[in-house]
User: Fold this.
Amino acid sequence: MIAYLLGVSEQDAFDDEEDATREAAGMRKIIHVDMDAFFASVEQRDNPDLRGKPVAVGGSSGRGVVAAASYEARRFGVRSAMPSVTAKRLCPDLVFCKSRFDVYREVSGQIRDIFRDYTDLVEPLSLDEAYLDVTEDRHQLGSATAIAQAIRRRIRDVTDLTASAGVSYNKFLAKLASDQNKPDGLCVIRPGEGAAFVAGLPVSRFHGVGPKGAEKMARLGIETGADLAARDLPFLRANFGSFADYLFRAARGVDLREVRAHRIRKSLGGERTFHEDLSAPGPLREAMDNIIDIVWDRIEKAEARGRTVTLKLKYNDFQIASRAKSIPHFVSGKAEFAQIGHALLAETLPLPRPIRLMGLTLSKLEGVEPKKRGDERRQLDLF
Assistant:
């Protein structure tokens, strides 16, 4: 608003905001830790016969869906959310393991205890990844890089698993960095290096830019971060609407978000984008079961209670539909949550078109994370 009163252009206002926040952002020390093929790695750890073999966690039947894949399986093109029959066709020697969320949750708790020894500013994103603000060097290790190295060593020692980490001065760059040298890698993007790092990346690496978005950008001559940075804000808004502001900042390595350990959630949920569009009832119900397992694990971890369950479907033409059911009492457990989710799905059948994404959310929440230190209680951010 002030920019308009002063007669400053909108892009100049953005540039001024970037300059005003660059110093503060540069003072932050952010680590993004991401476990390597977490579910599959736990299965390989606990069953030595699986080590070095292509492993998928999920259903192995014709209606099954891959929940996670080991790096050995990924070399064959196997990915999460892929139908099991497709995964088996790509990798005939693929070994399927049933999911064990109680074990994954226990290991995740061990990892988060390690995080909290270094900082109270931990923002979990899921069981296997989190942001940490280590601006305050609690153990006087000398740098965020040294802290990330110490955390990765302790994770290996305690869990016999590997983690990759990205270190930078904001969340956007730290998350990009954690994926740069996977598996078991570390990447550091120092203050002043963000814009140059982003410039060389394909836009498909930007969080939120999916395959269709990348295709649209390619048609507009945008294939890298440098291409994106060369477009002004009016152009981006004309072509990408409300997503434009994020793209404008991201192309310059700017992210103003703080690590929020006390973030209050209004809902908990999860969604999966499928490798191949789904339309048949069997695969749809199998995908629903997989999402229920993941989401209910998050709900239990957060000790949350809610009254409304919402189903989200994204069709192959990118149109989104949703259905919700509210009940007068809190959802009593996983069985009732599953019953409501499947009932909502049944109401949509037969589908008018195949779907590329399914999500399930519990809202109208109450609940907090279990106690960790003394009497302090933290609200858990999972999704």
